[in-house]
Amino acid sequence: MKIKKITAFLLSVIMIFAFSGCGDDPNSNKVSMPMSAKDMKGKNYEDIVTKLELAGYTNVYSEPLNDLIIGILNKDGTVDEVSANGKKDFRKDQRFDADTYIIVRYHSYIGSEDSLTEENSGKEPVLADTSDGMTELPICSDDIKHMSVDKVVDMLTEAGFVNIKNDPMRDLVFGIMYSDGEISEVSIGGDTEYNKGDRYYPDVKIVIRYHSYS
Prior knowledge:
214 residues, alpha+beta, Trypsin Inhibitor V, Chain A, 2 domains, 3-stranded mixed sheet, 23% helix, flat
């Protein structure tokens, strides 16, 4: 009799765990990273973009660094770093939202395309105004650096921000270390550190400081 009771109890426990696994998965909208950030470095950027898209990410962008002259130390098209919502040290199988903003930065020869390229056919990761009149940032402060000023202005404008000021630094002579129009810093309401999704009023003062020729 005791054996039957123990068996029945064990079966009940097994059934409870089995059915509990049939509920909604709270992470169902999240996607696992196919590789770690460290392992992505040095790989061909197109291969990495493909892996990320096949994994299920929908906002994957590539950005050439325009840092090569001869291409001895680094090869054209190899990945320098990959950031997911500004995070650059993610692990393999670490999970992020499918619409996480991912930038694949890669080495390229000087004079290559100098702006981000959307790698999929999905729309720009623009977030609508919230009901209280505030607007969410479409990008974090880490990822906004080194982008082109025109790209950032377009991105912020499409997100709904209306008080954007450009501040050229006039610090370039040859344009080797930095490209003309490459962003140094963007302050939003005086903040220079912010995350994607942080909320500000549409008329908050945004100042974009960027490298330029004198």
